[in-house]
Amino acid sequence: MAKRNPENERIKRAYLIYLRDAMGKDETTLDKVAAAIIRYEQATGFKSFKQFHPEHPGRFKKHLAKAKTDRTGEPLAKATVDAILRMLKGFIKWLAGQNGYKSKIRYSDAAFFNNNAKDVRVAHAKRQTRYPSMEQCAHAFTHMPSATLIEQRNRAGFALLMLTGARDSALTSLRLKHVDLIERQIFQDARDVRTKNSKTFYTWFFPVDEMYLDCFVDWVNFLRKDMLFGPDDAVFPKPKIEVVAGIGFQATGLTGEIYANAGVFREMIKASFVSAGLHPFVPHSFRKTLVKYGDHVCATREQFKAWSMNLGHDSIDTTLTSYLQISVERQGELIKSLN
Fold this sequence. Notes:
This protein has 339 residues and is mainly alpha-helical. The protein is built from 14 helices and 5 strands. The strands form 2 sheets. A 3-stranded antiparallel beta sheet has the order 1-2-3, with no helix packed on it. Strand 4 and strand 5 (248-254) form a beta hairpin.
């Protein structure tokens, strides 16, 4: 079976350029779209897109139903399947307007990639997600080791996560020039920091336990004064790996370079909870923790609005809808307490 179709590759490249330059999509989105289209080609035996037939989307859906995730070997989640189908729908709709394809594909053909109504409801259903309590975060943090430079860096990363609720991709791309210890804030500058939707905003440190602030301040001062790191060096740098006689490869220092992605940081946070005998919470769950805490400490709507802005939300509705969900049990308790 063919692994690539040269004709398809050319038009795929044109579509990705269109998404990037005309629609403003980022590289992460482009990678997902490219992967989705390759899945479709695999299902059709890498036939030319000009040979499109209404049966192909049905064959593709069966292909997705049998597909497994590379990491766990489990079937693809309903939300993942729904996202892939929407990407293909957008591609086919665009393809129908391109020279050489107009007579082969109609705009209405994109509708064949619609997901069935039941799976759409499952994919987009709101679900309660687990997040750590403030006490669980403190327990995990105090049990983190700090004997080596990497362990000290990891503790500082956990601390800043509690101080800001920033996304892991943003934290791992922070540079020292983005940290202002006097104002107790970080500047999430989208020119350098990997923020969601390339948004630029300031985040002041949340009023959480002082141990987090002390840890992070000590780390930044260490980088600046002892390591002589400059403004463009990473706040959470990659380790310097060298060969040590009789031991082999070992981390011997810090490079000052940022990580390409947040994978290492994400695994470190999960491991810190597991080591403390807790659920392996991910960095993003801290945002729910802080929103819940903010709902408790904020006395006015204006204060909670500022709390919401600190997380990078333009609308307080985003904070309430996505991060301050109320369980059915809690709903009942609140209503009964009004009596």
